[in-house]
Amino acid sequence: MGRILFFTGLVIMLIGGIIWLAGDKLNWLGNLPGDIKIERENFSFYFPVTTMILLSIALTLIVKAWQYFK
Question: What is the torsion angle, in degrees rounded to the nearest 10, for the CA atoms of residue 19, residue 20, residue 25 and residue 27?
Fold first, then answer.
């Protein structure tokens, strides 16, 4: 259990570092075509459908690669 928590924390730190270092280059991630964005006078709604699908595919490929090479 300790190893899993350690490596999970390490992965989260790596992802955070990448986002921190490449902050301006990743601004397209929440503004993809297919992301629903509704802004009105007193109301705003944002639902990143395409971004969630893209992240889901990426995470699935990472997990499958991890299982393959394990």
Answer: 70
- Measured CA to CA, the distance from residue 53 to residue 38 in angstroms comes to 19
- What sign does the CA torsion over 48, 51, 55, 56 have? positive
* CA dihedral sign, ordered 28, 44, 50, 32: negative
Cα gap 51→37, rounded to integer Å: 12
Residues 6+ apart with CB under 8 A from 53: 34
What tens digit of pLDDT does each residue of 8-29 get? 899 899 988 888 888 778 777 7
